[in-house]
Amino acid sequence: MARLEGKTALITGAASGIGAGAARRFVEEGANVVLADIQEDPGRALAAELGGATRYARCDVTAESDIAAAVDLAVAQFGKLDVMVNNAGVLGAVGSIVDTTAEAFDRTMAILARGVFLGIKHAGRVMVPRKSGSIVSLASSSGMIGGDGPHVYTMAKHGVVGITKSAASEFSAQGVRVNAVAPSGTVSALTSMVVTGTPDSFEATENALAASSSLGFAPLPADIANAILFLACDESRYVTGHTLVVDAGLTTGKAPSYFHTIEAGLVFEAGRRE
Is the domain covering 8-184+219-273 a CATH 3.40.50.720 domain? Predict the structure, then answer.
């Protein structure tokens, strides 16, 4: 049996990048999927590509009414909501913290943090009464360390890790799991914009990411989708409050430690080695 057979999922930011990769993977695994995105033409095109197992919903994740309506659409069309993926995101405010405006801060946080909060809230609204469900939010390697992304993005993604733990502590007694996936830069329009200055230079972006990866290749949306799938399906039924990092070891330090490369032995004190 497919890993999501008979389940219904809602994915925000589903029209492109990691969201589209997750949507394709979920449909392959037997799920019905609501594709929620502010990008109408790509969203409808993906729904047409994936067929009757999908529905498109225009959704601005900063608007609570849009998220609530997308959740209600999933229930109305498919009878329930089993999986919520809070994926929609932007890079947002960039530049020095001393030059970042409060307006840029608020807009970035509205998409990256408030949108996740609202997604968890409204997924919980329909999952808790059924005592079943899996909520997966997109954090980032920038949510695990400092200096890996812009200031407000980093703050928001740390917040995703925090709300994941907090919501998991509330929902676990109701049978609803809450987890997150934290990818490093992935071949997508957002990363392409950062790396090349244009949103569609995917080959150049892939080459640049491969060159900087300790594993020697770039992560594709499908790689992140596989991690999301694991947390969405019943294979992870005993996992909640966890952030699964998918970053080729970036947040642990890519270069081998000096102590891993010297001749093996024991050092008991300065100057004495056996």
Answer: yes
How far apart are the C-alpha atoms of 164 and 124, rounded to whole Å? 12
pLDDT tens digit sequence for 79-122:
999 999 999 999 999 999 999 999 999 999 999 999 999 999 99
Catalytic choice (56, 153, 238, 258): 153
Range of lowest pLDDT (5-9, 24-28, 146-150): 146-150
Which two structure tokens, joined as six digits, stand for 168?
A: 């998991």
Task: For residue 56, indicate whether it is catalytic.
Answer: no
Instruction: Look up residue 9 and give its DSSP letter.
Output: E
| CA–CA dist 160, 140 (Å, integer) | 9
Domain ranges for the chain, please list them: 8-184+219-273
Enter the pTM of the model: 0.92
